[in-house]
Amino acid sequence: MPASPETVFRALDSFRIETPSWGYADTGTRFGKFHQPAAAIDMDDKLADAAHVHRLTGCCPTVATHVLWDFAPGVDASVVASKAQALDIRIGSINPNLFQDQLYKLGSVGSPFETARDQALAHILDCIRIGKATGSRAVSLWFADGTNYPGQDSIRERKHRFEAALKEAHAHLSPEQILLVEYKPFEPAFYQTDLADWGMSFLTAKKAGPQAKVLVDTGHHYLSQNIEQIVAWLLDEDMLGGFHFNDRKYADDDLTLGSIDPYQIFRIFHEIHFFAWERGGKYPDIEYMIDQSHNLKPKIEAMIQTVCTAQELYAKAALVDHEALVQAQRKGNIVDAEMSLKKAFNTDVSVAIADWRGTKGLEADPLAAHRASGYAEKAAVERAKRRQELGIATEHSYA
Ligand code: PSV
Ligand code: MN
Ligand code: MN
């Protein structure tokens, strides 16, 4: 099936995806970090890298921030926002850090210790304030909270502590802000995670207030779980706030989107297009965000690869013939219904996407444009020098 350029253009015109500040810096697994000379050292570098990705792709105008890593204590958040603006991007979701402090050993807002709960709530309220100062919409909550052994704490008490904290946080939101509540089945808690699945996030968000919604991180599910069904239910309940996109083979691997199962991401996007089609083309307000930080791939290349994959799968999913799909569904014609999806998935949209980029004054191939720009090489030289001056570890040389 040839790609209908109009449909692809329309889909891409409205598609934005947020890149994460932590995806530009040296991060790693719990086993170690492999340093890259071009990795961002500070927030200025992260903003510069995010702006570079946006310049090449035209669809990443915001950058997600992780508060403890990105906003040094005492730094005026609005200054950071102005720096972003000067680079033609904006500060996107604000992510509190509720897992690194020693006080959070037994949890943050779910901890049995009041001092830990108070500190966690105060930090969330700080994040809401930073969100207001930076003009960002989403405060995105991910909790490492849980227990490691049966009997360690009361599961119901922990639930109540969560409900109280999120209700209090919600009361501090401005009318423009939203609170995203992310779930994850396990890790770092290995017996019970307080917000382990979409149902737990859903109920907690509902109790917090109308501006709280569920965040679906594609890597935070058990293997073979039907994520698009979760998406369809959340859409139907007006409770889908956003995504953290990544791919995985085993668990929370944070691999490049679509590297393992692109059809799954396509099916998720299909649910969204289908939902909007039924509503006369009105799309829900969803924050599309990337949650990946590559330890081995060059960071900016991995980010561009991810963004392009997201655009491709979003465009393909827009090509589903909804009329034909509904007709087939009504007749119980399973093969034709399924083929409506398959046909769209198998359509080559690369030319249409390259043409769309042309209409926006963008290079047809953002990855090639990045490589030709020399940006990473320049950053590597400058940042390696700065790292040396600052006494920060640098890449091991195999030479
Ligand atoms: C930890 O699992 C995690 O990957 C969550 O997905 C968060 O969204 C992310 O870190 C940033 O805090
Ligand atoms: Mn996430
Ligand atoms: Mn994760």
From TrEMBL:
Lineage: Bacteria, Pseudomonadati, Verrucomicrobiota, Verrucomicrobiia, Verrucomicrobiales
Pfam families assigned to the protein according to its UniProt record, in alphabetical order: AP_endonuc_2
UniProt GO MF annotations: L-rhamnose isomerase activity; metal ion binding
Gene3D superfamilies for the chain: Divalent-metal-dependent TIM barrel enzymes (3.20.20.150)
Annotated keywords: Isomerase, Manganese, Metal-binding
GO aspect biological process, one term: rhamnose catabolic process
InterPro entries: L-rhamnose_isomerase, Xyl_isomerase-like_sf, Xyl_isomerase-like_TIM-brl
Superkingdom of the organism of origin: Bacteria
Domain (Xylose isomerase-like TIM barrel): residue spans on this chain: 80-274
Full protein name: Sugar isomerase
